[in-house]
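Q: Here's a chain of 303 amino acids. Please give me its 3D structure as tokens.
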Amino acid sequence: METLKQYLNNFFKRHQQHLQACYPGITLHRLTSELTRHCTSHGLSDLKILNAAFMSGADHKLDQFFQGLEKGIPLEYLSEESYFYNFPLRVDRRVLIPRKETELLVEGALATLHRLAKTSLAAINILDVGTGSGAIALALALNYEGKTPVTITAVDISPLALVLAEQNARRLRYALSPHCCLKWYRGDCLQWDWKVEAEYHLIVSNPPYIKECDKRSVHSQVLRFEPSLALFLPDEEYEKWYETFFSKLKKNLVSDGEAWIEGSEDHLRTLQSIARKLDLRAEIKQDYTSRDRFLVLHRGDCG
């Protein structure tokens, strides 16, 4: 009888073409690491399990892993974990899998947060719009090094996403800055009146930014498994949606505050124009591949 490690090796050989299509650049080493993580996350914590005898159909939890690979389910959903910025984050199909590019948004927002903490402010208010798994909000709370009290209000339209975000916060509670207070609220960023705090010094958001017409350029794995609500906007509503979003942002951003918004390289210039028409100063920042990825916004009345 094969060991689990031998079964995995043979599975990789048999399905290599399919695996490369679903998981570009996947290697046997990466797959072994993912299987180990899957075992750990499902209570199979004995690392010797790779050398134990294995027969397909004999272990439901292990069978789930291989069946998931055959279906092309994202590896992060199989293990229910993603490593973001500098911490592990629980993820499943209720939320998007956080991308490496979003870590640049966190870096920019943290720099702003620490700059604000060195001023004479008595307290700092942050708003995270479309928090999903809580990735951005938690990254800020985990890495804040100042002493000024910070309130981070995280909002999402999906109640299921918020349940997961709060679970992530509880798991990480002992590592969070003692000077940060996290609040979680359900709301549509276009309809919610944002009155939980009167004004925000920093607003961060990774909103839906892909047009429906651009779906053809999106990897099939994303289309099949990640929540469309967090990804797509109807073509005919796209520019109006952002006009409303930026109008609310301007109303609730303090005069010397800052907003970091992630967006699509195909439409970021258009969004920059929309922001400028609303008298917001809008600077485009690029990602690791030198593609337009972020808008950094300031109120036009701040000099």
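Q: Can you summarize the key feature?
A: Residues 102-299 form a domain with the Rossmann fold fold (CATH 3.40.50.150).
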